[in-house]
Design goal:
Layout (H helix, E strand, L loop, with lengths): L1 E4 L3 E6 L13 E4 L1 E6 L6 E8 L5 E4 L5 E5 L4 E3 L17 E2 L2 E2 L7 E5 L6 E7 L9 E7 L8 E2 L6 E4 L6 E5 L6 E6 L8 E7 L2 E2 L4 E3 L12 E3 L4 E6 L1 E7 L6 E7 L6 E4 L5 E6 L3 E6 L6 H6 L2 E2 L9 E9 L5 E9 L2 E9 L14 E7 L20 E13 L4 E4 L7 E4 L7 E4 L3 E9 L2 E12 L9 E3 L5 E4 L7 E4 L7 E4 L3 E9 L2 E11 L4 E3 L4 E4 L6 E5 L4 E4 L7 E2 L5 E9 L2 E12 L5 E2 L3 E2 L13 E2 L5 E9 L5 E5 L9 E2 L2 E2 L3 E11 L5 E10 L2
């Protein structure tokens, strides 16, 4: 029997409200020394850029991924790659070399969209450490100016925000989803406070929220990675884990775990993993699913970078999560005093990986500048759209013949999930008909997915493959509750089918769009019985069983009254076996002759070896069936000389002695034998006359 499920799941997608808007503002990266990656195509491609910076940069696209501008804070290029109108003379991100800013502020360029005007962007530019100044400036770009290519707004250029800041900055969204926070580490090497400047519809506040960092947070390389769950990760004398209050701007609840420093930090796309690149330790992965247990996070650390290559010194630098949900890593190799830079791509950064795996990194974007090396891949522009609730879609789902269905939220990377029937995961297993919905909340956006689920369950079961006897028939019954229609392979539509001939019979049962098929193979049964013995003779003292075999199960009955597959013959005659099986009685027979096989030996007293064909050889006569175990015959003349010897009853004396006719006269014989069946030994002696 073979069953086939034609439809396991049917989903009708009905769009009932606004689709999720594209969020591709970071699809075009411009960074380093004229480097660019375009993520609007798959796979992403390398393109040339006009940007010249050694560390920080930000590229800004619209929601559809169309490039608007890119900047290093102290310089801005419009979508055509030329300096943006009114962008000359911007401060920050130096030092100035050859009349142009060097771009050596590690994280000193940050961009947000203006909370009160979606056509305007605020660009922050921080001084590089080499300038021995600690200022942050900001300027405002209006994309409606210069025929849509954008320009720096007059009067909103080089606005001094603070003179007490380091190169280490990041952007956080505000709790109201309409504001931002610029988080900066202060310049004071002894304190390195966290400064949070609020950015809202009124502009940028010059009065920060100040949070004192513990001594363990001190260091000379302090990148920050802010997770959407409010955890802030930084480097100091180890890995610093803190909390950020997006309502007040306060940084608090500091914890420190062992980690090699200095280095670079990056979160995986779903923020379940934290990566740390270090000059000698390579790239380390921390499992953030273990939060808030910081000790468990510390114990989860393991290296994921490739093993070192002989003769090559490898340095892993900046890391950044791409729009394609892969992690891009800036790598620098030094061999024979030659420096070569590459961008490695980690294909599955959200997954836990132990050690080096050949599938993790792909060297598919190599750049080999001879002199113009760089340190950074750029920062994301942060876009806040306010608190949005989006009705994503309603899915009418029919489940065919399955016990359960796994529902999955559209947004697989949201910060939290809530199902109407309980549960907080991105998936929900349901077993009954009903309407199910899930809220997927991510920062300031909530998506609602709805599912109308209907289960159709029924069973179809034909008998196992079976047989029919010649002239017989069977009924195949496929009826079962829940089945609306039956179709057999010959076109019949009944739930039961009368079968008179062998063949393959298939029925398809359906209920709506759900169908299930079952097949049974009916073969013709041809019973046969055979007695394996041929007609034969047997000695009554040595009978052997007569055996019958059949090709189908059943019982054996013999004409002599015996039962079973064997019988012992007791008389001469015909023996008939009857085999009774599902198809009736069949017979076979054999004829057996029984003989009295006890040996009787008769010895003549004369013979005439004259060649007339009568009585020419002297030997004893034996009864039919006689079988000797041992036999010998000796003949001597009157002088006691042996004239003949034989060890077989059919080999007699022809009257010759030493190749010459023996003279006529009286001779003496001795015959000895043992009966094979009775094991009886006998010895016969007497005289015989050779007549010539």
């Amino acid at each position: 029997m073979k069953r086939t499920l034609y439809f396991s799941l049917f989903i009708l997608l009905c769009i009932t409200a606004v689709r999720v808007c594209a969020q591709e503002e970071n699809n075009r990266w411009h960074f380093g020394q004229k480097q660019s990656i375009n993520f609007n195509v798959s796979p992403p491609v390398q393109e040339e850029s006009n940007i010249l910076t050694y560390e920080s940069s930000v590229s800004v696209s619209d929601a559809a991924g169309h490039l608007l501008f890119y900047t290093m804070g102290s310089r801005i290029w419009n979508r055509d790659g030329v300096p943006m109108a009114n962008s000359y003379g911007l401060q920050g991100n130096g030092p100035i070399v050859g009349g142009y800013p060097f771009g050596s502020s590690a994280y000193g360029t940050q961009v947000v969209r203006h909370p009160s005007n979606p056509n305007r962007y605020i660009i922050f530019s921080g001084d590089a450490l080499e300038d021995n100044s600690f200022r942050i400036y900001y300027s405002v770009v209006d994309m409606t100016l210069d025929n849509g290519k954008g320009a720096v707004v007059s009067g909103m250029k080089n606005q001094l925000l603070t003179d007490d800041a380091s190169e280490y900055m990041t952007i956080a969204k505000g709790a109201d989803c309409r504001s931002y926070w610029l988080i900066v580490r202060s310049r004071d090497v002894l304190l390195r406070n966290f400064l949070a400047f609020r950015i809202d519809a009124n502009g940028v506040s010059n009065t920060p929220t100040v949070s004192a960092a513990p001594a363990a947070a001190l260091g000379n390389s302090l990148p920050m990675a802010l997770a959407k769950d409010g955890h802030l990760y930084s480097l100091g004398q180890g890995l610093i884990i803190a909390r950020f209050n997006s309502l007040t701007g306060a940084v608090y609840d500091f914890r420190t775990i062992n980690a090699p420093t200095p280095g670079y930090l990056a979160l995986s796309p779903d923020q379940s993993k934290l990566y740390l690149s270090h000059a000698t330790a390579g790239i380390l992965q921390y499992d953030l699913d273990l939060m808030p247990d910081a000790n468990a996070v510390a114990n989860s650390v393991h290296a994921v970078s490739p093993a070192a290559q002989a003769g090559i010194t490898t340095q892993y630098l900046d890391m950044r999560s791409g729009p394609d949900r892969k992690l891009y890593i800036l790598k620098r190799n030094t061999a024979n005093n030659a420096v070569t830079q590459y961008i490695d791509r980690m294909n599955t950064p959200d997954q836990y990986t132990v050690g080096y795996n050949a599938n993790v990194f792909s060297m598919d974007m190599p750049w080999s500048p001879s002199v113009n090396i760089f340190w950074g891949l750029g920062e994301d522009v942060v876009i806040s759209t306010g608190k949005d609730t989006i009705m994503n879609s309603v899915k009418d789902t029919i489940v065919c013949l399955d016990h359960d269905l796994v529902l999955q939220a559209y947004d697989q990377y949201a910060g939290s999930y809530h199902w109407n029937t309980g549960g907080s995961g991105k998936q929900k297993t349901v077993y009954e008909d009903g309407t199910y919905w899930v809220y997927s909340t991510d920062d300031c956006r909530t998506l609602i997915d709805s599912f109308h689920v209907h289960f159709i369950r029924f069973d179809l079961s034909l008998p196992e493959d079976t047989t029919i006897c010649p002239g017989q028939s069977i009924i195949l019954d496929a009826s079962n509750p829940g089945i609306e229609e039956y179709v057999w392979n010959d076109g019949e539509h009944n739930s039961m089918k009368l079968v008179k001939e062998p063949g393959v019979y298939t029925v398809t049962a359906s209920n709506g769009i759900c169908s299930l098929s079952d097949t049974v193979n009916v073969t013709l049964l041809q019973p046969q019985v055979d007695i394996i013995n041929n007609d034969t003779s047997m000695c009554m003292s040595r009978v052997a069983p007569i055996t019958a075999v059949a090709n189908v199960p059943g019982t054996f009955t013999w004409s002599d009254g015996a039962y079973g597959s064997e019988t012992l013959p007791a008389y001469t005659g015909k023996y008939v076996v009857t085999h009774t099986n599902v198809c009736g009685d069949i017979k076979d027979s054999v004829y057996i002759t029984l003989n009295n096989c006890i040996c009787t030996v008769m010895v003549p007293n004369a013979f005439t070896p004259n060649g007339d064909g009568r009585n020419d050889v002297f030997y004893p006569a034996t009864a039919p069936g006689c079988n000797f175990m041992f036999y010998e015959m000796r003949i001597v003349n009157r002088y006691g000389q042996y004239v003949f010897y034989s060890n077989h009853e059919q080999l007699g004396w022809d009257g010759y002695y030493k190749n010459a006719p023996a003279p006529g006269g009286v001779y003496m014989y001795t015959i000895k034998y043992t009966d094979r069946y009775t094991h009886e030994y006998k010895e016969l002696k007497g005289e015989l006359v050779l007549m010539r």
